[in-house]
Amino acid sequence: MHPFPDHKILFSAQQIHENIARIAKQIETDYLGQNLILICITNGSIPFVADLMRKISLPLRLDSMRINSGYHNATKPTTEPLIVDAFKIDVQGQHILLVDDILDTGNTLHKVAQYIQEKQPASLKTCVLLDKKERRQAPIEADYACFSIPDKFVVGFGLDYQEHYRNLPYIAVLT
Ligand code: IMP
Ligand code: MG
């Protein structure tokens, strides 16, 4: 049996790496001389943040959060996003870049952004691999996005369907 059922490649590994490099350069320029902290949301952003941080030639720190987006093994969330495990670094007065795999309805990042804002960072921006603009419900936009995509459910490069496909080196649409 093939390890992955039918899927169609949307962005190749090469395209992903080129776009991550482009965004890393922009982040380098924007945060030059500042104390940058990346806060990534696991598990989805693991491949993205690993590649992104290695392309940013600035002193930076990394921390992570676990969120239950309320997907419960479905393609549409059924409950509110919940912070399961928060980051440990003190973010007060620091420049925070929140990193996630995808900005969809925006409910997850909006909730996390509010949580971080309460801790009074010097600044807070968001960086995502994928942006599904037409699905937005919450008032949040990505400051950095590698790709804008239409309203299709995608997998690979960290993104899952029922926890599978995260290890695909490209981004694909299930067929
Ligand atoms: P939001 O709260 O609707 O913005 O959803 C954010 C989370 O939903 C992401 O971190 C993903 O875990 C998940 N998600 C949204 N769209 C997709 C998709 O197309 N494929 C896989 N996961 C998705
Ligand atoms: Mg996720």
Task: Note the main attributes of this structure.
single chain, 175 residues, alpha/beta, six-stranded mixed beta sheet, three-stranded antiparallel beta sheet, 3 helices, 22% helix, 31% strand, globular, binds inosinic acid, binds magnesium ion
Enumerate the distinct ligands.
Answer: inosinic acid, magnesium ion
Major β-sheet annotation? 6 strands, mixed
**Helix and strand pattern:** EHEHEEEHEEEE
* β-strand amount: 25-35%
How are the strands of the largest sheet arranged?
A: 4-3-2-5-6-7
| Secondary-structure content class | alpha/beta
- Mean of pLDDT: 93
Query: Fraction of residues in helices?
Result: 10-25%
The helix count comes to: 3
Sequence stretches where pLDDT stays below 50 over 5 or more residues? none
How many strand units?
Answer: 9
Using the CA coordinates, give the radius of gyration: 16 Å
Cα separation of the termini: 17 Å
Shape: globular
What does this structure look like?
It contains 3 helices and 9 strands. The chain has helices at 13-30, 46-55, 107-117; strands at residues 7-11, 36-42, 60-68, 82-85, 95-103, 123-131, 144-148, 154-155, 171-174. The strands form 2 sheets. Strands 4-3-2-5-6-7 form a 6-stranded mixed beta sheet, sandwiched between helices. Strands 1-9-8 form a 3-stranded antiparallel beta sheet. Helix 3 links the parallel strand 5 and strand 6 (123-131). The protein starts with 6 loop residues before the first strand and ends with a strand. The site of magnesium ion (MG) has 3 residues, from loops. Residues 44, 69, 81, 100-108, 153-155, 159-160 line the site of inosinic acid.
